[in-house]
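Lecture 7 notes: from sequence to structure.
We start with the chain below.
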Amino acid sequence: MTLPIYLELFLTFFKIGLFTFGGGYAMLPLIQEEVIAHNWMKVEDIVNFIAVSESTPGPFAINIATYVGTETGGFLGAVCATLGVVLPSFFVILIVARVYKKFKESTVVQSVMTGLRPAVIGLIGSAIVTILLTVFLPNGFDLKAIVPQDFLVSLGITVVMTVLVFKKVHPIIIIGLSAAIGIASGFLLN
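Predicted structure tokens for the same chain:
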């Protein structure tokens, strides 16, 4: 028996919201796995939407849940997926806020936090590797598949934007420059 798409969206994103610690980037591997397993989107579409989501206002997890919900089930799908990803955090933070002051000095709580930090970094690292592979090696690791001009443009944008990040240039300027360079290279190279 298959679930109605709205319930499936809600439950899938509820699970993602419930079992992901560390914010939107840490959710990426689980979002990618679930969305692909349900055949809602392809990896390339997810990577493209990550770029869009990062350049739009609002939390990443909400943006991507809303997008997947809209693509899969229209407006009601967007509402179900968004509620699914938001509700676990809402309930957890209510509980944590009530008990954290009381238990923050606890050895168990400190140990849990110590254990979660590396896991979150690993999840974020996994998401970064997936995105890099999709951007730079879209057809897998095959040197013949790399289009030199596309690869060089992507690499150039990545290097320039990384330098700007370390020089503490405002993120809005970096996003604008990335978009401008991408548009310009699209017109010049195609």
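Points to note: The radius of gyration is 19 Å. The mean pLDDT is 81.
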